[in-house]
Amino acid sequence: MRLTRYFLPVLKDTPAEASIASHRLMLRAGMIRQASAGIYSWLPLGFKVLRKLEDIVHEEQIRAGHIPMLMPTLQPADLWRESGRYDDYGKEMLRITDRHGRDMLYGPTNEELITDIFRNSVNSYKELPKTLYHIQWKFRDEVRPRFGVMRGREFFMKDGYSFDIDEAGALHAYNRHLVSYLRTYERMGLQAIPMRADTGPIGGDHSHEFLVLAKTGESEVFYDRAVTDMKLGDREVDFDSVEQCQAIFDEFTTPYARTDETHDEALFNEVPEERRMSARGIEVGQIFYFGTKYSAAMGAEVVMPDGSRKPVEMGSHGIGVSRLVGALIEANHDDNGIIWPESVAPFGAGIVNLKQGDSAADAACEGLYQALTRAGIDPLYDDRDERAGAKFATMDLIGLPWRITVAPRGLKNGVVELTSRRTGETEEMSPEAAVDRLTQIYAKV
Ligand code: ATP
Ligand code: MG
Hints:
Blueprint: H1 21-28, E1 32-36, E2 39-42, H2 44-63, E3 67-68, E4 74-76, H3 77-83, H4 85-88, E5 94-97, E6 103-106, H5 111-121, E7 130-139, E8 154-164, H6 167-187, E9 193-196, E10 207-213, E11 219-224, H7 242-253, E12 257-259, H8 265-268, E13 276-291, H9 293-298, E14 301-303, E15 309-311, E16 313-320, H10 321-331, E17 333-334, E18 337-338, E19 349-353, H11 359-374, E20 379-382, H12 388-398, E21 402-406, H13 408-412, E22 416-420, E23 426-429, H14 431-443
Parallel strand pairs: 3-7, 19-20, 19-21
Antiparallel strand pairs: 1-2, 4-6, 5-6, 7-8, 8-16, 9-10, 10-13, 11-12, 11-13, 13-16, 14-15, 17-18, 21-22, 22-23
């Protein structure tokens, strides 16, 4: 993309309404604009990042054997009356009446709708297990929308629903989700720690939230520092293997890690003192096994081998895709702007032409632009007639991981500069070598 043709309305001044870095930087970098409280338009740069996260979530869900689909944002109230949640949900639910006087709602989540689909289509235990998911906009009329996309009213969520014939199957689905989530967040360059979470009125101990540690997080968390050294890495996972998923689950959930809702001071004190940590975290996902809560209330049953009918065992599993954009920035920024990990960067590299209009500089930039595009690196070429300082400031603000700087003086020696946004290190090399280097870096992402 050439910057002169793009839509990148960066702001010079810090918007007064933004109190945390990610909100401030998303506004300044022209990623989002507020439409009304807690509701945002995703401008082209923000939309690109959102799409990248969505792609990673899809890939990892499909890898785990889960099936993508798409349910609507608007749902009929009657389904929620069946589960009893129409009244329970209170003011967070946006209720709408259509022209025929029918009660509708903008879905805050989809348990009822998916259970309805399931009960109308699945009859036999032979069709299980199944996990269906979608990535769709949700609406919750939060009392205090704040921190930009982190606590929006409209937000983008992956929500998946597992259906199994028995508890053992449902627990495997639960473990499988935990493992696939670990991989999902790691691919985004994030550490999200699974922490035992509150299951609310349903009880049981089968809920984990995934938290990204950040000073600005809304949750208070307590953990054994050992969890921060754990990584799934690129080990091979067989998502059908009950044993392997259980082993990884055990590995990652044995060290103490809990949110304040489930925090147990006595247990925590068993962790050696130097490893006992308390901090703040951003909840970027949650998994939940709730048995037959919805299937029993809504009659989602299957015929078992002995001919009896049994409500299915269900779980629901969410990832806050739009919140993750904010969480990623909270975890990756400095005073000058965002620092994207390669896997989610809106563009793979920026090209800065320090002398627009100079025939050698223009030609070198054009060559780099073509070569990087061919290599699939998706460059952003700053071809504006602007001062160097302004161009560097824009690149730093929007946080592309790599910048190639092209100046007539360097070109006389056959070199351009390749700069890492994260380390600030700069190396001189030929334009061809810069393209090769970036090709190698992105081949590993
Ligand atoms: P919170 O405790 O932050 O209100 P939640 O536990 O009610 O969230 P879930 O129902 O678990 O949310 O939804 C799954 C994921 O969706 C959360 O882990 C979070 O990442 C994201 N999410 C929830 N509410 C919001 C929101 N208002 N804005 C942005 N993302 C959200
Ligand atoms: Mg939650």
